[in-house]
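Ammonium transporter Rh type A (Gallus gallus), 417 aa
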Amino acid sequence: MRFKFSIIALLLEVVFIILFGLFVEHDTGNTSLYPYFKDVHVMIFIGFGFLMTFLKKYGFTSVGINMLIAAFGLQWGTLMQGFLHRGEGGKIPLNIKSMINADFSTATALISFGAVLGKTNPVQMLLLTFLEITAFAVNEYLVTEIFQATDIGASMTIHAFGAYFGLAVTLILYRPGLKNKHANEESSYHSDIFAMIGTLFLWLFWPSFNSAIAAENDQTKTIINTYYSLAACAVITFALSSLLDQRGKFSMVLIQNATLAGGVAVGTCADLTIDPFVAMCIGSIAGIISVLGFRFLTPVLASKLKIQDTCGVHNLHGLPGILGGIASIVVTATQPETKKGIQLTAGKQASALGSTIGIALLGGALTGAILRLPIWGQVSDQNCFDDSAYWEVPEEEKLPEINSNNYDEHSRFEAIM
C-alpha cells in the first residue's frame, strides 16, 4: 500500500495536471447554475459518503474513499466528457455546467463502490474509477449524441450504468470465503444513524440532481415531478417495510435505500410532459420494486449468481434505473416529445437503455478482470469490512471500571457488623 497506492495516485494526478494545462480553459459564462452545483456537490461528497457508513467497522473507508473517488473522478470526468463533446480543435471550456457534469460522472463510480464495498483496496478503487468513468463518458456520448435520447436525470446513464457496472465487477471478484456472512458485515445502532444522514441529504437534494442541467423552461417541472415522486416512494417504502415484517416493524436498510428509488426512477422522464400524479405512480412503483428487491432478490443474487452486492445498489439504482428507462419509452411512445429540436421516440429511448446495460456489463466485467490481477494486491477475507486494514483506527475508549476494592471493603464491613 505505502508505495503502490502513493505512486499510482501521484502519477495519475500529474497526468491530469498536464492534460488540464494542454486542453482546458476557463469559460466565464453564466453562474445561475451554481446553486444546483452546490446541491449536487453535497450529494456526491456527503450523501453518497454517509449512505455507505452502515457497516459497523467500515465508516472511515466509506466516507474517506468516497471523497478520494469523487476528487479523483471529477477531474477525469471533466477531461473525458470534454474530449468527447468539444468542438474540433477547440479547448475544453470549464464552467458551472461542466462542473456539474463532472460530479455526475463520479456518481457512477460511487454507485459501483457500493457494490464492492468492503472487498477492495484503495488502489483497486482508483483503477475502477478511472476505467468506469471512461466507459461512462463513451456511453453518455452514444446516448445523447448518436441515439439522441433524453435522460435528464440520468436514470439510465448514471444509475443503471453504475449499478450494473458494479455488479459485473463484484461478480468477477467473487469471494467464496464470504459466502457465509462476515462477522463485520453488519451494522450497529450508531452506524445506521450515520447512514441515515446520507439518505436525508440525498432525499432532500435529489430534485436539484435531476433538474441541474435541464433546459431553463423545464427545470421547475423537473423539480416538481422529482419532489412528488420521492414523497410517494417514501410512504410506499415505509408501508411495505412494516408489511413484510412479521412483527410489523420498520427495517432501517429499506428506509435508508428504498426511499430514494423514486428520485432514481423518475429521472429520465422528469422533464417530459407528464402530470405530477404520473410521477407519483413512478415513485410508488420504484419503492415497491426496490423493497421487494432487497427482501427477495438480493439473497438470490448472492446464493445463485455469486453476486455479492454489499450495499444493494441493484435495488436502489439498477432496477429503478431500468424502470426510469421503461417509463421514458412509454411516455415517448404515447405522446410526441421534442427536445432541442430533436423528435424523441420510443426506439431512441430503448436503444439508450440497451446500450447502457450492455456497455456497463461488458465494461464492468473487463474492469473486474483487471482488478483481479495479483499485482494490485487483495485484502484477505478475514480483513474485509474492517477499516484497520488501511486506516489508523483509534482504540475505543473503555468505560471506567468499578472499584472492586471499595466494594469488597464495604461488604466485609457489613459482614462484621
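The two ends are 66 Å apart (CA to CA). The mean pLDDT is 92. ok done for today
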